Structures are given as C-alpha cells and as structure tokens.
Amino acid sequence: MIHFVLLISRQGKVRLTKWYSPYSQKERTKVIRELSGLILTRGPKLCNFVEWRGLRVVYKRYASLYFCMCIDEDDNELEILEIIHHYVEVLDRYFGSVCELDLIYNFHKAYFILDELLLAGELQESGKKTVARLVSAQDSLVETAKEQASSISNIIAQATK
Amino acid sequence: MNPFSSGTRLRDMIRAIRSCKTAAEERAVVRKECAAIRAAISENDQDYRHRNLAKLMFIHMLGYPTHFGQMECLKLIASSGFPEKRIGYLGLMLLLDERQEVLMLVTNSLKQDLNHSNQYIIGLALCALGNICSAEMARDLAPEVERLLQFRDPNIRKKAALCSIRIIKKVPDLAENFINTSASLLREKHHGVLITGVQLCTDLCKVSSEALEYFREKCTESLVKTLRDMANSPYAPEYDVAGITDPFLHIRLLKLLRILGHGDDDASDCMNDILAQVATKIESNKNAGNAILYECVGTIMSIEDNGGLRVLAINILGRFLSNRDNNIRYVALNMLMRAMAVDAPAVQRHRATILECVKDSDASIRKKALDLVYLLVSESNVKPLTKELIEYLEASDQEFKGVLTAKICSLVEKFAPEKIWYIDQMLKVLSEAGNFVKDEVWHALIVVISNASDLHGYSVRALYRTFQTSAEQESLVRVAVWCIGEYGDMLVNNVGMLDIEEPITVTESDAVDAVEVAIKHHASDLTTKAMVLIALLKLSSRFPSCSERIKDIILQNKRSFVLELQQRSIEFNCILQKHQNIRSALVERMPVLDEATFSGRRAGSLPTSVSISTGAARNLPNGIAKPAAAPVADLLDLSSDDAPAPSSSGGDFLQDLLGVDLSPVSAPSTSQPPKGGTDVLLDLLSIGTSPPEQSNSSASDILCSIQDNNAPLASLNDLTSLSPLSANATSPASPAPVMDLLDGFGPNLQKNEENGPDYPSLVAYESSSLRMTFNFSKQPGNPQTTLIQATFTNLSPNVYNDFLFQAAVPKFLQLHLDPACSNTLPANRSISQSMKLTNSQHGKKSLVMRTRIAYKINDNDVLEEGQVNNFPGGL
Asked: Where's the GAE domain (chain B) (predicted)?
C-alpha cells in the first residue's frame, strides 16, 4: 500500500502531503526533511527508487516538482511510477497544462483530485475521464451552492433595506 | 462582524506568504492570519469558516501548528451544505490522524453522511473513513460500509471497497463479513470497481485464511478469465496506457492470482497458461509493460513450480538486467533476490551481470546488487567473487566503501576455505579500505593469525610488506604493529617461510623503523599509539641491538597528555633500563587467543560495536583525522562491554589486544566493577609461567631500585593514576610474579593510599534512571584547573537518544565543556564527556555546579536537573 504521498518542489518546499498511515505531526516533519534531503540531491539519470527505513520511496520529477510515494518493500515500484504519471495527467487535464503555481493556489483542488484517485493507500480509479467527471461534478455542486447562497443573501439584503 | 475575519481571501494570503523575502516575514504573516482565524473561531463565525479552514490547511503545509482548527473541521462536516462538508472532510484528513481523540467526535456525522441522499456526500464520508479511521470507528461504521458495497452507483461501490480494506486491516475479525460481497465485486465490468474489488479480495486473503480458501475455490477461474479478457481486449482509449489496456488492473489481478496460487497445485495449474501468455505477449518497451512483466514474474516465482514458466521468468529478469533503464535494472535485482529462494542456480547464471551492477553509478542499484551478490556467494564461488569485489573496492567511491568493506569482510569470514586465504583477503581489504573496517573485524584477524601458528611468519612478513605501501590505513597499521611486536623475530629471520613467498630481507632496525613510522603517521590515534608502545617493548627484547633506539621512541611519550600513554611510557622505560633480567619473561609471545571466547563476546557485543562504528563514521567521513575523543570513546565502549559480562581474565583479550587500557575514566569509575587483568602490566605478567625463583630475584631487584623509581613516580602520584593498579595488585588471585613486581612499587603506592587518592571520584548525580560520576585530575603545574571526566551511566533498560549534558557554574569558575563521546546512551552502558574547570578563587572557594541532562526515550523528552556542591575540597 502507499503510506504517503508528497509533492516537494525543487527548493524543498512542500506542495502537498497525504498520509495514509498514521504519522504524528513531528514524524511528518522529520520524514519530509529526511526525504527531501535524500531525493532532491539525486542526479537526473539515476533510478527513481530509494530505500528508506525499510520502505521504498518512488519519486518522479515533473518540471520543478518531485512527486514521491512511499510504498512497502514488496509493492510494484514500476506501477507506482505509472500511478504518479496517472495523477499528473489528470491534474494536467483539470488545470490545462498544469504548473507548480496552479498547485500552490489551488492546493485544495489537487487534494480533491488525489482523493478521487487514491483511497486508503490504494488506487481507486484507472480511468482518467471518470476522475475528471467526478471532480467536476463536485465542483459544480459547490458552484450551485455558492450561487444559491449569494442569491439568498441578496434577497435578504434587499428585504432588510 | 468581527474586524479580523473580514480579512484576506485565501488567494491573497497565499500571495502574501509567497512574497515574503525572509522566514521572519513569513512567520509574521502567518501569525497575523492565525490570530484572525482564532478570533473568528472564538466568535463562532459562520460565513468564513470554510475559507478559514482552507487557509489553515495551507499554513499547516508550511509546517506551522494548526491544532486549534481541528474543531472547525468537525463543525463544517456537521453543517448541511456540500461545499462546507467538502472542505471540512479535507481538513479532517489533513489536520488530524487516527490517533487523535477528537476524531471520535466525528463518528456520528460520518454515520449520517454515509446514509445521506447525495451520493457525493457519501463519497466524501467514505473517503475520510478510508483514509484516517481508527479501529473503534471501523467497528462502529463497518455495517454502513458493507451496505454501500452494493450501492447503485459504481463510484460509491469502489470507494466502499477500499474503505473496507482499511476496516479489515484495523479490525481483522470483521473480515468474514466482507467475503461474500467482495466476491461479487469481482464480476463487475466497471474498471474502478473491479480494481478496488480485486484489491479488497487480496487484502482479505492476507488477513483471513478462510477468505483465501473461499476465493481460491470460487474465484480462481473467473479471475483467470478476467485477466485473459483484459490481455486480449481491443484498444480502449479510456484505460489505455502505452498500448496496454489498464495495466493497473493487470497488475492487481496478477497479485491476487499470486496469493491464490501460492501453495496450491490446482490453482497454480489453472493460471499457468495465462501467465505464460502475459509473460510472452506484453510489450516491454514502455514502463507500463515492464510493470506488468515484473508483476507477472513475481507471480510465477510464487506459485507452485512449473519448470517452463520459471525459465521464462528468469529470462525476463535477465533481459531486465541488461536494460539501459536504471529503474528496470533495479527491479530486476530486487526480483532476483526473491528468486534466490526458489531457484538459486538460475540466478547464479546472471552472476557476471549482477557483479557489473555492483559497480553502477547509481547508489540504489549498487546497494541492491551488493545485497544480491552477498546472497549468491557460496563455498564454491567465494574466491572469484571476493576477488571481483576487492578489485572493485579500489574504484568505489568513499561513501560506498564502508558498506562494501563490511560485506566483503563478512563473506570472507563466513566462507574462507583456508586460513591463509582468509589472511590474504583481509590484508587486501585492510590495505585498500582499512579506515572503513570495523574494530571487531581486525580484532578477528588478529585472533585468526594468533591461532595459525604455522602462518605467524607468513602473516608478519605479508603485513610488513603491505604496511610499506599502505601505512595510512589505520586498522592495517594496528594489525601490522601487533604482529611485528609479537612475531618480530620471524620477520627478521624469515622463519616458517612458505613456498609461495618471495623471500625478503628485513633487518632488525627496519622492523623498528616500521613501528616508528606507525607512531608518527598515526600520532592522533591513541589506540595505535598504545599498541605501538607495547610492540616496542616486545621488540626491545626480541632485538636487543635496537634496545637503545626503542627506549628513545618510548620516552617520546613521557610527556603525553594522555595519562595512560604517559604512564606506560615511563613504566616501560623502567623495565628497559632497570629490569633487563625479567624483560624477556615479561614480553613473551601472547598465548594463543581463544577463538570461541572471541566469537562469543563478539556476538554479545555486536549491537554496540555496530552503533559505535556508524557513529564514528558519521563524525569522520574519511576516518583519517580522528579527533582525540573518538578512540577514547571506542575504548570506553569496549571496556563497558565488560561490565555486564563477568570479566574472566581469559575473556578480556580484546583489552589484551589493545594492550593498554586507555580508560582512565572507566577504571576508577564507580559505575563499573573493577576489572581484573585488563591492565597491560598484568596482562604481560599473567602469562604467569615464569618459575618462582626468577620472580624472587626480580622482586629483590625491584626492591633495590625503589629509590631510583621515586623520581618518575612522583609525577605519577600527582595523577593518582596508579590506583587501578593498586587495586589489582592487592588482589590475592594475581599470580606470584605480579605481586613481586608490584611490591617493588609498594611504598609509593602505600603513600598514595595513605593520602587517599588525591581527589576521589564523585557520584555527582543519581536518579533511578541515570548516574553521573565525576573523576578529577589536575594538570601538573596548574592547580587552578581541574579536568573532570564525567561518566553517564544509563541505569534503565531504555535507550537514551539525543543525550545532552549541560552545566552552569558561578562567575569565579570558568567551564570548558568538550563534546560527549556519543549522544546515544544504550541501556546499561556509559558514555563520557570531559570538561575543564578553572577556579579563579582557587583555595578560597570550592567548586559548585548546576547540571541539566536532557535526553529522549522513544522520542519523549526527559529532563533531569541537579546541583553538585559536594566537590572534594582543594579543587
């Protein structure tokens, strides 16, 4: 299973963290520090796996961002690379050629998408369209709610004038 | 509305934080935002609650504390609208984990949402439950999740399936409730449901043998069929990855089949064909294809034996190994390691390629390959493989040398067919990477040499030769010095020449030269220095002609700041000058070291030694420029090994090897029982075979020379360093000659004892978990300054990490604190730390000190404080 997902920028800034195994706040900070030291220093041609505390971290760099997933020793590392790519493709479709800034300002969207892709540390959906459809359906639910809220507040505002 | 909450939008806050130039600026912005959010929380502001939580999540990602927002998540989840719930659940998953009590409060909301009419709200609840639920919540909400496995919308079914995985992992007893429903998921067409269903079945099999039996019987065939359909399916754009339809589903099916086939012939038979098809048909030019092949190989290796399939699998791995992509080679090595268990000969065929991988430029691959080579070695191939690895040792980079050396040493020790080969290989390793070798490795080498009586001459000559070229390798130097000291005569006279050896001519003074080079080269290394002193003493008897020169070299340490070296140097000088007649008996060859005792001790002390060497390696990346503290620490750790073990004199030869016990700290310290036979003089003496009449004469001899001895001993008195000696001297168990020799020093010792040791050691602090002992000494000619050696002894069964000792003193004192020898304090062990106190009011005021000791037990901070005001007077 995937124990956690990290998105770290090349400068070591954390862009997204998702923990599927229990790690306390302190441990989380430590893990992030350790791993960014381990991964950001690796050369470009090396393999995408590092062994770490008896687990394995699979990482892949897309532009300025490192996508890291930590898995058990007997999981399929190559498949995790595909899952990372899968996630990146969905993000790309959602944001329209995604860049780091999209993920900074819309970090919650990145989380919503990840939650449609992974659950309990396992892959949830292999169809990119399905994921996109589910996310946009929920986005539009939010939009409608907002519109309603604003129209109601308008009505109230006018009524109380 | 409150004046703060009207504040910034999420986007504006992020922008403000990003525009900060310094960390301090960022902290200020965050502090302001947090204050506003707290104010909004305390006012129970409704309108901006979800915006505030979103801000908190961002702040949380930056690493700031956000616990005060946890209740806000619960409030948002409890509200009725979808947008609030969505952000509330996200915050719940981000800010909380399953170990927080607050989480229990959400159970009721979760239950309501799992029964909600809006399927997206059900989805949110399932997602939160699957990601962070605790065992209690799992138990409470399992029935809801079970029901949702049959929900009309497939997207809920798949979420429920993964959520069930978390539930059965938390509460395995619940597994049986899920077996039937999960089996029905395997018949679905929707990929998401199928993938999650297969995954659920796999995890059910892992926690419940009942489930395994059930699926094996009922589902194997249908799973094989699903996999076949998948493998033969036409192009499906939605699921296509690099020309393969849904590799994720492929992989999950193969994984489940692996578990079903393992240990069951019928199930294995059933899947043979499809595995062969996958293994041969899948394209291996893209990562997705390779991921499937890799999984398929794993399945073939795990299910019951089918010769043809195994060959196919090993061939795939062979292809992987020669792939240019590092990832593929990495997984190949990984899988070959698992394959060793089922088909070792097949893996052996790829030995050459694997050896190449040890030399790869990628550290992950090197390490994997080395692990695999380590598994591959057997009696039959140890020679060529070791040769390869040692050759590579030359070329490997510094950081890898440590791992590589450890592996080679372990292999050579484990599989050495004969002693001479072992010695040869060890010499090669020591000369190439002697600075990376752990202490127990060269100790072991000395034990082996000592036991191979026919190879003494060969070993000492080989060591001498190697020493000429690799004098910078510390552990090589130590072994060489030890051997030259013991077997110097064989070096010079070519005794026990083997046929394979080239004769060399070494004069007596050449041998002494070598030892002198060692002491010069490794001047900062106390252990080596101490060993050199012993070797010189021994050589003085073996080579009488060089006696004068040896005396000079020994005397150079007369003023050493290290007590032990100074003391030995003076003692040895006395032996050389005044006790020619007992010298030869004193420095007889060491009795053969007992291999069994050594390996026993080694097994016992292994964890400590490992931790020492890693600690040392971290401090000293190149291992050459050792700070003086490190060797002392090593020695201390070695001697503290003795504390738990009853110290029989035979078992103490680690100290014997080291010759001098460089631990002025541990010897008089109250934390350890006084050790018998660790002192070098006693060691030398405990040979104990010299006939009594000789000892009588020597005794009188020494008695005569008491007056002469006074001069050097006077300085020793100041140092009170003879107290351990005196303890040993009065022990009735010591053999006769010991008594005699020491009786010679008697009056001085007596004087020592009458005065009392100048400054008795002091238990400065003691609690149930920790004891701190101070030992005092003065630098000659500087009465104001006191050197304090603090020894910390862990009295508990826990390991103390991040150990930190701090001290504060009043203004008239000046304190200089050296770093401790280690910041980790294992159970029942000691570490030491030295400090220097200068008393500007010497003679008027006595020392006083406040102490504070901080450490961690299992990541929990512990703080112990105390005050020491019972320092001995006169400091």
From this structure: 757-872
- This prediction has a pTM of 0.66
- Establish how many alpha carbons lie within 13 A of residue B655's alpha carbon, considering only the half-sphere containing its beta carbon: 29
Helix (H) or strand (E) holding B857: strand B849-857
**Residues B484 and B511 sit within 8 Å (Cβ to Cβ):** yes
Residues B533, B356: Cα–Cα separation, whole Å: 44
Cβ separation of B94 and A104 shorter than 8 Å? no
pLDDT in tens, A19-41: 999 998 889 999 999 999 999 99
Tell if the CB–CB gap between A120 and B18 is shorter than 8 Å: no
- Is the distance from CB of A78 to CB of B292 less than 8 angstroms? no
Tokens at residue B592, please? 């053969």
Of B87, B239, B247, the CB nearest to A82: B247
Chain B positions in Cβ-Cβ contact with residue A129 (cut-off 8 Å): 238
* B109: Cβ contacts below 8 Å, ≥ 6 apart: B74, B77, B78
Q: How far is CA B24 from CA A30, A46, A68, B28, in A?
A: 21, 37, 29, 6
* pLDDT of B344 over the 90 cut: no
The reply to whether residue B192 touches residue A16, judged by beta carbons under 8 angstroms, is no
Break chain B into its structural domains and give their ranges.
Answer: 419-600, 759-868
For residues B455 and B418, what is the distance between their CA atoms, to the nearest angstrom?
A: 11
Helix or strand (DSSP H, E) at B94: helix B82-95
d(CA B544, CA B565): 23
Instruction: Using an 8 Å CB-CB cutoff, list chain A residues near B86.
Output: 112, 138, 142
User: What's the CA gap between B282 and B853, in Å, rounded?
Assistant: 62
3-state secondary structure of B827: coil
B165 in contact with chain A, both atoms CB, cutoff 8 A: yes
Give the total residue count for chain B. Answer: 875
Give dist(CA B738, CA A19) in Å, integer: 67
In the numeric block, the tokens 């008393």 are attached to B839
**Token pair listed for B870:** 């019972």
CA distance A111 to chain B (A): 8
CATH for the stretch B759-868 = 2.60.40.1230
What are the start-end ranges of the H helices in B434-579? 439-451, 456-469, 474-493, 508-521, 526-542, 547-555, 563-578
On chain B, the residues whose CB falls within 8 A of the CB of A137 are 120
> Residue B829 has which token pair?
């062990």
Place of tokens 């020592």: B752
CA B520 from chain centre, in angstroms, equals: 32
Interface probe, candidates B327, B357, B372, chain A, greatest A C-beta count within 10 A: B327
**How does pLDDT run across B413-457, given as a tens digit for each residue?**
888 888 888 888 888 888 888 788 888 888 888 888 888 878 888
CA distances from B502 to B423, B432, B496 (A): 17, 22, 12
Phi/psi of residue B9, each to 5°?
-80, 165
What residues contact B645, with CB distance under 8 A and at least 6 apart?
B601, B604, B651
Q: What is the C-alpha to C-alpha distance for residues B170 and B248, in angstroms, rounded to an integer?
A: 25
Q: Which two tokens stand for residue B112?
A: 């309501």
Amino acid at the residue B642: D
Q: Which of B57, B130, B330 sits opposite A49 (nearest CB)?
A: B330
Evaluate whether B832 touches B631 at the Cβ level (below 8 Å). no
Nearest to B562 by CA among B526, B586, B538: B526
Reading the block at residue B485, the tokens are 């000291």
Question: pLDDT-derived band of residue B758, with 50, 70 and 90 as boundaries?
Answer: low
Using an 8 Å Cβ cutoff, are B390 and B382 in contact?
no
Q: What letter does residue B712 receive in the DSSP assignment?
A: H
* Helix H or strand E encompassing B135: helix B135-148
